[in-house]
Design a protein that fits this description.
The chain has 90 residues and is α+β, with helices and mostly antiparallel strands. It has helices at residues 6-16, 45-65; strands at residues 19-22, 28-31, 39-42. The model has no long low-confidence stretch (mean pLDDT 92).
């Protein structure tokens, strides 16, 4: 069974919402509407997608650090305070 990571799944679901447009100069712009301010540009669609993913990752990390409210994507809510689970002692 594959390990699931909440942050990775959040990024994948957010990237699935990405919208890309080709600009008049031939470059591409990508954005994620639910993630305000997450916009990226690239000379190719692939470069734009990679840049958008990097921008999204940075946006999430800054948002978590500064405790900005992040959108709930899918059923993933990153705004919840982490819960520490007790570790079993041997």
């Amino acid at each position: 069974m594959a390990t699931q990571y909440v942050l990775s799944e959040y990024i994948e679901q957010a990237m699935a919402q990405a919208i890309y447009d080709k600009l008049e100069d031939g470059n591409f712009v990508g954005r994620i509407p639910s993630c305000k301010g997450v916009v990226a540009f690239g000379a190719t669609l692939r470069e734009c997608e990679e840049s958008l993913r990097s921008t999204l990752e940075d946006w999430i990390l800054v948002g978590l650090k500064l405790k900005h409210p992040l959108p709930v994507i899918g059923d993933i809510d990153l705004n919840q305070e982490p819960v520490c689970e007790p570790m079993d002692t041997l």
